[in-house]
Amino acid sequence: MNINKKKYFFATLLFLFLSFPFLNGASFNSAFALSDKVNPVGTNLIVEIAKKQNPAVVFVTSKTKFQPTKGIPPQHRGPFGQFGPFGGPGPFPPSPAPGNGSGTGFLIDKEGYILTNNHVVENADVIKITLENDKEFEAKLIGSDSKTDIALLKIVKQPGDNTDFPHLTLGNSEKVEVGEWVVAIGNPFGLDHTVTAGVVSAKARNIGAGPYDEFIQTDASINPGNSGGPLLNMDGEVIGINTAIFSKTGGNVGIGFTIPINMASDILDELKNDGKVTRGWLGVMIQKITPGLVETFKLSDAHGALVNDVVPNGPAAKGGLKRGDVIVKFNGKKIVSLGSLPKQVAAVEPGKSVKVEIVRDGYKKLLDVTIDKMKEKKQA
């Protein structure tokens, strides 16, 4: 591939987080109850979805009083690494100046709980929410999880305020099909409640964000400021949280990535009750099984995860795992891909003993391993 082609294919994963003063959007007046099932009017289903679901989508603005670190300010960072606004390179100078940013979120119940991206509100001192009718509220951070880039907020009501907020229904991202139509609602470039439509382009995309990569890919137009907004199916249900785009220019080129809503649903109670997510930890470094390794390690197929290192005194080491072992089953479940093992380990309660089936020197072996608690920077 020549240099020009390499440049053509080079792209940047850009967080959809807006960091400059936002534009004042047009006022939207109507408010629809969202508890009813979406009933399309004629054949223009997208119009009906936009009318009914828009009131539950909110404009999230955050303010950080002090930024003590060098490089990209915290509200511009996320699991894809450091990038400047709209994909431009850093560094940002070290500065104690306040930082302002904005993104999108959506209400999930009448009490005022809101889901958004962690990178939209990370390290924020003040968080404000603006509804479709331009009414503003302060919000507090209830819980966040940097590994999945999910945060839970709650609107702060004044004493005597009995407002029931419009809210969206969380769908089932496991049922999403490639090719189905979807709708994105958000605040790109500060243009509040922008509605775009497209299709699901792919599922379970791994884009190098971390051990829990399984993004939904869509060509619905999403841009900086869409971070934390909902991706909706044709029933008006949330199937994902819009998070990132793949772009050479910083603008939309039809490749957007969305966190499957089931990932948020799985940790929602922990965020609400504990403010954080507790995950299991095995203590191994793993790599993918290639066709060449199948023969080398005398495996029946390419399923499994090759252990290329074991953390000293970690759960795996104490349970007898060694470098060169191939983990083929964990807690009774087959390891169908490299990414499935970290997810399965994370789901185990720390302190629980599980069965780990391995292949060593061509023979299967069953080990008992007691799972430990994952620290912030550990992965598997």
List key phrases describing it.
380 residues; alpha+beta; Thrombin, subunit H; Pdz3 Domain; six-stranded antiparallel barrel; 14% helix
Report the sheet with the most strands, covering strand number, pairing sense and barrel closure: 6 strands, antiparallel, barrel
Q: Domain count, please report it.
A: 3
As a percent range, the share of helical residues equals 10-25%
How many strands appear in the DSSP assignment?
Answer: 23
Oligomer: single chain
Q: Strand-residue fraction?
A: 25-35%
How far apart the termini lie comes to 36 Å
Give the second-level CATH assignment, the architecture of the largest domain.
Answer: Beta Barrel
The shape is globular
Structural class: alpha+beta
Output mean pLDDT.
81
Q: Could you tell me the radius of gyration in angstroms?
A: 22 Å
What would CATH call the homologous superfamily of the largest domain? Trypsin-like serine proteases
In sequence order, what are the helices and strands, one letter per element? HEHEEEEEHEEEEEEEEEHEEHEHEEHEEE
Task: Explain the overall architecture.
This protein has 380 residues and is α+β, with helices and mostly antiparallel strands. It folds into three domains: 11-168 and 265-274, Trypsin-like serine proteases (Thrombin, subunit H, Beta Barrel); 173-263, Thrombin, subunit H; 280-373, PDZ domain (Pdz3 Domain). The chain is built from seven helices and 23 strands. Strands 10-11-12-15-14-13 form a six-stranded antiparallel barrel. It has a six-stranded antiparallel β-barrel with strand order 2-5-6-9-8-7. Strands 17, 18, 19, 20, 21 and 22 form a six-stranded antiparallel beta sheet that branches. Strand 19 and strand 20 (333-334) form a beta hairpin. 43% of the residues are buried. Residues 5-14, 18-42 and 69-97 have low confidence and may be disordered.
